[in-house]
Amino acid sequence: ERAVYGTHPEMAVTLSDMSHLLGKLGEHAAAQKAGEEALAIYRQFLGSKHVQTARMAAQLAEQLLEVGDHAATRRLLDEA
What we know:
This protein is mainly alpha-helical.
């Protein structure tokens, strides 16, 4: 998909889905990496005030909560 879309919101959708599923599998480092990349793409293309950006921030906050990073979780929830 990256070869087709490159850095594009469509790629962020896939990264978001991957982040969610990797988290469910307990692969938190990979989930966090995919979530951070998706959030960066959403911020770049949709802006920080867009609802999809807020949803991704909240999803990433959930991933960070799973690994006990409460400070980062709070920052992302405040952003969302």
